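Re: the 488-residue chain
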Amino acid sequence: MQDGGGTGEVAIGLTIAGKPRLMRGMFLSVFDIFKVGVGPSSSHTIGPMVAAGRFLAALRDGADRIPGAGEPARLVCRLHGSLAFTGKGHATDRAVILGLAGFDPGDFDARRAAEVLERIAATGRIAPPDLPEMAFDAARDLVFDYGPPLPGHANGLVLSAWDARGNLHMQETYYSIGGGFVQTAREHDRPRDEAEGPAVPHPFRTVAELVALTRTRGLTIAGLQRANERALRSDAEIDAGLARLWAVMTECIDRGLAGEGILPGGLKVRRRARAIHERLLAERGQNLTAPHTINDWISVYAIAVNEENAAGAQVVTAPTNGASGVIPATIRYYLDHVPGATRAKVPEFLLTAGAIGALIKSNASISGAEVGCQGEVGSAAAMAAAGLAAVLGGTPAQIENAAEIALEHHLGMTCDPIAGLVQAPCIERNGLGAIKAVSAASLALRGDGQHLVSLDACIETMRQTGRDMDSRYKETSLGGLAVNVPAC
C-alpha cells in the first residue's frame, strides 16, 4: 500500500566517502505511525475527518473545480464499504460533518464540536473556514451506501460540492486506509515507483534490511529511526514530539483509570478500569496475590485507554485507535513494574516500535477493514514487543524475534465489533495484546536472536491471510461476534 505524500521505493547500503547518502525511500516517520487523535476509530473517525479537511483544502485551492460550475453551495458525502456498514457505530457521520466544519483530530475540542453539530443540525447549513457557508442536511447529504465497496479499499468515501443550480462543482474519492492515513483515489492508484518519500540516510524496505543496517551502520533500530527522522526535523523537535506522544498516552491511561459510567453507543458496556485498578491497589503489599496478577495490571492500563477511546476522547493512534491501548499499557508496565526502568528510555521504545509499525504498514496493512484485527492489535503487539525488548537491552535480532512472536500469535484474528462499536471485543483484546507483547519480549530475550520464522515472513503471511479473509470478518460487523451476540 502507498500513502499519499509519504512513501516510495528505496535502495539501501549506498555511501559516499564512507558516509550514508541521503536517498528517497519508503520512509514513514514515527509521527506518521503515532498520531494524536480522537476516538473511537482511526480509520472510521480520524480518517474521514482528515479526508473532509483535505476536501475543504481542495475547494479553497480550486484547481479541480469543474469548468462552468458556479460557487459551491451544498456539500454531500457518500460512505462506502466498512465506513457504511459500521459508520454509525464508529461515529463516522459525526467525524465527516465536523471535518467539513473545519475540525482537525490533532487539536479536537469536544465542547466546541458539540455546539457546532447542534447548530448544523438546527440550520441545515455548514460554515467551513475561509469558504462560503453551504447547505448540508445530514439526513439527505450524508449517505450510507451499503452496496459493494469502492474498488480501491474497503474504507471509501466520496465527497462532492454542488452549486446553487445543482451542478457538480468538485468531487473527490478518498480511502481511509488505517491508522488515520488517507489517500485520494489517484494517490491510491499511483504506481509505487512514481511516489517519492523524504530523503533519509538509512532507508529500509524490509526487516532483514533494517537489521542488516544496524550491523553495517553500528546503530540500534531506534538510532537508525532517529537518524532518518532528522531528515525531517531537529533533535529538539523529535524529542518534543515523542514527549508529547507519551504525555497523551499516559494521561489517557490516568483518565481511563478514573472514569466511571456507561460507554456510549447502546450496548450499555460499563467502564471497568477504575474498579479493577482500585482492587489491584488494595491488594498491594498484602502478599496475597498470585504472580500472574501482573497480567491484570498490564490489562487494566490497556482497558483504561480503550474505554477512553470508546468514549470518543483523545488518544494516540498506536498504530490505530482500535489498538491504541497496547503500546501505552506496555510502556506503563515497563515504567511502573520493571526494576531499573526509566522514562529516559521511552523515546527508544517509541522509535523502535515506530520502525516496526512502518514496515508492517508498508508491506501489509494496519487496517482492520483490510486484514482484520491481526492488522490492528496484532501490529500493535508486535510494535510493543519490539519496543519493550529494545529498552530491556535486546539486540536487533532479539527485537525482531520479539515482534515476530507477538505478530505470529495474532495471525488470522478477525475484526467483528458488536454493533460496529469499538467496545466488544476490542477493549479486552487490547489487554490481551499487551500481555502477549510482554510475553513475546521476555521469551525473545531468553534466546540469542536466532529463530525459525522471520518477521518479514510473518508480515507477508498476515497480508495474505487478510487478503483471503471473508469480508464479513473485516470490520463490517456482518459476521463473528457481531452477529452471534445480541446488540441490544
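The chain is about 50% helix and 10% strand.
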